[in-house]
Design a protein that fits this description.
The chain is an alpha+beta fold. About 50% of the residues lie in helices and about 15% in strands. Helix 16 packs parallel to helix 23.
């Protein structure tokens, strides 16, 4: 497996591996680690020496499955560990080990370079209320599981300090525990003064508030929580028209405030729990002063006023919901507004009445349109009234704004009551992050609300966690040196794994690229006719492959692709260089004999490149009717190739058609000469024409065996006739003298005067690029009008022992 997939991205948090339906617990762990006081208590706990574990190897464990029930209807208090299942000392050791493994896990989550870490050892040491491992698949609600986890951690901290109260083992009370006053009182609404009498009053601690979401927003749910009518009270103080009411006043809020949202209800029809995915809004910032006992005298009359406004709000909201979710007998859909129904009815009537001559259709449409307008106006009016009422409620408590909490964690469940997936959104300094098991991603704030408020798909928040802003930076992160060393050692191993993987991958990539390039060169040399763009055929690598020098070819190709595979630093890393050289020593390192052969091959390639470039430039001259330079280039190419004929044949890079080209150009030359004789332009090029023509015949004469004699004879006759016309027009000499002079000229013409300037090895790349550009431009031309053969080069051995099939470059008419 590619270890790069395990590497954490820069600035990204560490995820947790899902070891089997553990996404809910992973979300909890990420949330608690994000609480500075909780993290500090775990990391700074002085633990006794424990069993040394080399790594967090996954083990069979027991924990709540993701298909467990989403939430409990009532608060659950975890029971003490039963003594029947395991020994009390084992319970103690397991609790301490739980804290130890949690400490190790938190250290990994802080400084590990891994994208995710394994929480298996934490899970393995988590016991239920009976002292047994928490079993996978039990129908256990998340609230109970949360209580059990916190209780076991607190027990571990307590056992680690030998039962003595310390800052660490009492920290959870300081983090999560608040205190509330619960009052049960009577209230007679028919009495003139609506006097309230307290029946009972008790103070208790709380660690979370479990809220009914039917109000649709957090403050509405809190208002129902702190003041609710009791319908089943049967105490002695209950009389006649009196109502029994329960009031809750918060005496102290904890630094971290947890709201469990009741997202599961029991459906009596199907006799099973169902997910309640109704929309429930909550703010980013929350002021809790309006629920404090300290403000009771100020708040009591405002609660009365709020209740009155709430009644009006509920009445108007009921009317609005009826309009927005119109229901009627015979209608199956319940999520369509009355306005949509009316507009749909209008569209239906218009469509069915077209072309049928139905009377009074316009009256019906106008009536539906009028009703739709009324519905829209009513909707807007109701929404406006609701907003006004909500503003009045907010103004009642506007002055209570000193105890501010900020949202920092939203735990989300996506699915049904019995199945689904859990993740958590956590707010960090750089923004919101989504923690979904091993995957940790940065998200926009709008996603948090879209996926958490509910009301659309099956995803919705089931737990909200707020904290006081001043609590954020009270605890610096300090990781014990032993754990730091352990995590850093793991980081070193990961880095080593990545290094080894990169080295192996680079070597495999190099070998694959090398083999692919060698095959490509074979294809180029074998099937050049099928590939219209054969400019790669002129490369040094293709030249070596044609010449049956595979070792030298591999060396050149390998040196070329080496920086592409290993980057600009190449083989600076000693381990990479050692591993690479051991495998490719024979390819990259040449012995003295191979180095000499490579130097000779380069010299021959430069000559080949000079010849190919001259022929290509000659083809270009033909397209521009530049006969003089064309013949010079062709003759120079011929002379150089003739001097290296054996070597080029062995390299399968000998052009056997240069003479055919010269013969073809000579025909064009004669035509041009015939056109110039007797014209005003004759004197401008006469001497050059005669000299080049003499040179052409000399070349053709020396190679009569390779050129058809009839072609030479025909050319000679035409040249002789042209010379006669020149003599007649100038009177310079008779024809015999001219022919004798031409014959003497043949003897005196020396090829060195027409030799090409050879390309040097340093110039080869530029010449090769120019050659490629010239060949591509010539491929766009047609030379039929010039009576010149298509631009084509057929390289072959004159012995025919290694002949390539077809032309290597061919121009077709556009």
């Amino acid at each position: 497996e590619n270890p790069h997939t395990h590497l954490r991205k820069e600035g990204m948090a560490v995820g947790l591996k899902n070891i089997g339906n553990t996404c809910y617990f992973n979300s909890l762990l990420q949330t608690y680690r994000a609480i500075p006081a909780f993290r500090h208590a775990i990391l700074q706990c002085p633990l006794p020496p424990g069993e040394k574990r080399a790594s967090a190897t996954p083990v069979p464990i027991a924990l709540p499955a993701d298909h467990n029930q989403l939430a409990a209807a009532n608060p659950v208090v975890a029971q003490p560990i039963a003594k029947g299942s395991i020994d009390e000392n084992d319970v103690k050791r397991t609790a301490v080990e739980l804290v130890r493994q949690l400490q190790r896990l938190f250290a990994q989550m802080e400084i590990s370079d891994r994208r995710f870490v394994d929480p298996s050892l934490v899970m393995q040491n988590l016991l239920d209320s009976s002292g047994d491992p928490v079993q996978v698949g039990n129908q256990q609600d998340v609230s109970e599981f949360n209580h059990i986890f916190l209780q076991r951690v607190e027990e571990g901290l307590n056992f680690a300090s030998n039962g003595q109260a310390t800052e660490n083992n009492t920290i959870f009370k300081g983090i999560f525990e608040g205190k509330m006053l619960q009052e049960v009182l009577t209230k007679d609404d028919k009495a003139a003064d609506s006097k309230e009498n307290v029946i009972s009053s008790s103070s208790c601690e709380f660690h979370e508030l479990i809220l009914d979401i039917s109000r649709g927003d957090l403050h509405g749910a809190l208002e129902d929580y702190v003041e609710a009518q009791v319908d089943d009270y049967h105490g002695e103080s209950s009389q006649g028209n009196q109502k029994i009411v329960k009031n809750v006043w918060i005496e102290k809020f904890p630094p971290v405030l947890t709201f469990q949202l009741q997202r599961v209800s029991y459906d009596k029809d199907i006799q099973a729990p169902v997910k309640v995915n109704d929309r429930f809004t909550f703010p980013n910032e929350l002021f809790m002063d309006r629920y404090l006992l300290a403000h009771k005298m100020k708040l009591m009359p405002r609660r009365v006023r709020r209740n009155d406004l709430r009644q009006s709000f509920d009445h108007l909201n009921q009317k609005l919901q009826h309009v927005l979710h119109f229901t009627s007998e015979g209608l199956e859909r319940k999520d369509v507004s009355a306005d949509e129904y009316l507009r749909g009815a209008m569209a239906f009537v218009k469509e069915r009445s077209e072309g049928r001559g139905l009377g009074k259709v316009d009256v019906v449409v106008d009536m539906l349109n009028s009703l739709a307008t009324q519905v829209r106006q009513e909707t807007q009016q109701l929404q406006s009234q609701l907003r006004d009422i909500q503003k009045q409620i907010d103004l009642l408590f506007a002055e209570f704004n000193s105890d501010r909490y900020s949202l920092f964690a939203v735990l989300v469940h996506d699915g049904l009551a019995g199945s689904g997936h859990y993740w958590v959104y956590i707010k960090r300094q750089e923004g919101w992050m989504k923690y979904s098991d091993a995957e940790v991603t940065s998200v926009e704030e709008k996603e948090v609300w879209e996926m958490s408020e509910g009301g659309q798909k099956n995803a919705s928040a089931y737990c909200l966690m707020y904290r006081r802003d001043k609590e954020d930076d009270m605890f610096a992160i300090h990781i014990p040196e032993l754990l730091r060393s352990e995590v850093e050692e793991d980081n070193r191993r990961l880095k080593e794994e990545i290094g080894n993987w990169d080295r192996r991958s680079a070597i495999m990539k190099f070998e694959t690229s090398l083999n692919d390039k060698m095959q490509e060169l074979k294809d180029i040399n074998r099937d050049a006719l099928k590939d219209r763009d054969t400019t790669s055929w002129y490369s040094f690598e293709a030249f070596l492959e044609r010449g049956q020098k595979p070792d030298l070819c591999k060396h050149v190709v390998g040196v070329h692709i080496l920086p592409q595979v290993f980057g600009p630093k190449g083989l600076e890393d000693n381990e990479t260089r050692t591993m690479f050289e051991s495998k490719f020593q024979s390819i990259l390192a040449l012995n003295p004999t191979d180095l000499t052969d490579l130097g000779s091959a380069r010299q021959l390639y430069c000559a080949f490149l000079s010849i190919a470039s001259a022929i290509s430039e000659a083809d270009k001259c033909i397209s521009m009717l530049d006969m003089d330079n064309c013949l010079l280039l062709l003759c120079g190419a011929y002379e150089l190739q003739h001097s290296l004929e054996l070597e080029l044949e062995q390299a399968a890079s000998f052009d056997a058609e240069v003479l055919d080209r010269i013969a073809a150009v000579q025909m064009l030359f004669l035509r041009r000469l015939e056109e110039l004789v007797g014209s005003p332009e004759q004197s401008q090029s006469q001497s050059c024409l005669f000299l080049l023509l003499a040179l052409t015949f000399k070349v053709l004469h020396f190679n009569a065996g390779d050129v058809k004699w009839q072609g030479i004879n025909d050319s000679w006759v035409r040249w002789k006739g042209c010379a006669t016309r020149v003599q007649e027009s100038t009177g310079a000499m008779d024809i015999d003298s001219l022919l004798r002079g031409a014959a003497d000229g043949w003897k005196d013409v020396a090829f060195p005067e027409y030799r090409l300037s050879r390309v040097s090895w340093d110039e080869a790349p530029n010449v090769l690029q120019s050659l490629r550009e010239t060949r591509r431009s010539l491929c766009q031309l047609s030379n039929d009008r010039l009576e010149y053969p298509p631009v084509s080069v057929l390289y072959r051995s004159s012995s025919r022992s290694r002949q390539l099939d077809g032309d290597l470059m061919e121009v077709e008419p556009p």
